[in-house]
Amino acid sequence: MATGISTAFITLFDAEVKQAYQADAMLRNAVRLRTGVEGSTYKFPKISAGAAVARGSLSSDVTALGITYAQATATMSDWVAAEYTDIFGNLCQRLVAPAGAFSVRTSAEVMTADVVDTAPGAFFVEIQNLPDTVLLYLVPSRYCESDRFGDLARDIIAGAQLGYDQVHGISDWIRNSLRYTPGSSAFPLSAVEVNAQGHGVCRDLAHLGIALCRSISIPARLVVGFLHGLEPMDLHAWFEAYVGGRWYTFDPTQDVLRGGRLAVAYGRDAADVSVYHQFGPPAVYTSMEVRVELLDGPPG
């Protein structure tokens, strides 16, 4: 058995959460969550290289209090893991998995906002004023063919104020025009595909929202993470748009935009935010259990 993160890392997590909890008045509007993935199990026919997004990333809706940690166990032999940060700022681990059964567990305890920031009327940011790091979220990507959606986007947002109100209109249109059907697709659908199909999982609807936003020069990115109270419980996907000088959350799968979110990874689309990238002979995926628990009071 091998662990991916040292005990010292977990101890640091506990100490910093306690200290920040006492110091940060923002926590009056926060909830304390424990999130994790249990028994994410694969069977590899031979030794395989891979990269896992095993640790959460802090978004604008998560206070900088929770330092997440991960544990992984290999059932047949030891494996080698190293941490790195990808080009999107996601905290990842790269590893070599042994042949046979391989199980990964992740766990985090965080304080996160119990409401999502909204900003009706927030302004459209002119392209020349966008931060350099935001520019890559303007162009078409593998699952978000924004160059195909200009006409539809302009119809949807007709009469809306430039910026946040346009994105809100896009999210509402997706929710009212397409069906959210959890478990309906095993593989990611592109924006073009889900728009033609008329229904999809959270990831697919987010792809459409991203493509529509980019088609009118609003940067948009995919977020994968946890949402407290999601039914049925699973990893969840939503999108963020850059308006008013910052990123804002939009989720066309939810009638009411809820808080209690923890971002695990950001990217241009699903190709960038897979929880696990595996290279080599295909692995057999067997099981995964996602949990998000609401905890009482401050960290103990």
Question: What does this 3D model show about the protein?
Answer:
The protein has helices spanning 7-23, 150-156, 164-177, 191-197, 202-215, and strands spanning 30-44, 48-52, 69-74, 80-85, 91-97, 100-113, 179-180, 199-200, 220-227, 236-243, 246-250, 261-267, 276-279, 284-295. It has 300 residues and is an alpha+beta fold. It folds into two domains: 7-113 and 275-295, Immunoglobulin-like (Sandwich); 127-258, C8orf32 fold (Roll), CATH 3.10.620. The strands form four sheets. It has a four-stranded antiparallel beta sheet. A hairpin with an 8-residue loop joins β9 and β10 (236-243). α3 packs across α5. The longest helix is centred in the N-terminal third of the chain and has 17 residues, at 7-23. Residues 1-28 and 54-77 have low confidence and may be disordered.
Average pLDDT figure: 78
| CATH fold group of the largest domain | C8orf32 fold
* Overall number of structural domains: 2
Helix percent band: 10-25%
If helices are DSSP runs of H or I spanning 4 or more residues, what is the number of helices?
5
Which CATH class of the largest domain applies here?
Alpha Beta
Runs in which pLDDT lies below 50 for 5 or more consecutive residues are 1-28, 54-77
Kindly estimate the percentage of residues that lie in beta strands according to DSSP: 25-35%
Which labels suit this protein?
single chain, 300 residues, alpha+beta, Immunoglobulin-like, C8orf32 fold, 2 domains, four-stranded antiparallel β-sheet, 5 helices, 20% helix, 34% strand, disordered N terminus
